[in-house]
Design brief:
5 helices, mainly alpha, 85 residues
Length: 85
């Protein structure tokens, strides 16, 4: 859109710092931001599309983050032993 963050933050009535954190990946957009993005785009990008994108990011993180799997493995005892009969 070639807009400055400050101007876009004003367009959707959020603090410029909050927008910066969302754009920088330090914070996930809230439901209110997702709805405002839908409204701002005249429903060109529906809120559910934004939501699904966030879910896809989380899915990718769960599937690929080996560090958290290693860390969490230490907290599980007596794992199920499932055998093929």
């Amino acid at each position: 859109m070639n807009k400055k963050n400050r101007d876009f933050a004003k367009d959707i009535s959020i603090d410029e710092t909050e927008l910066s954190q969302v754009l920088g990946g330090h914070r996930k957009p809230s439901e209110k931001i997702i709805i405002r993005l839908e409204i701002h785009s005249c429903k060109t990008i529906p809120a559910i599309t934004w939501y699904r994108l966030l879910e896809k990011e989380k899915e990718h993180e769960i599937l690929t983050n080996k560090t958290i799997r290693t860390t969490e493995r230490r907290h599980v005892k007596n794992k199920l032993q499932i055998g093929i009969a």
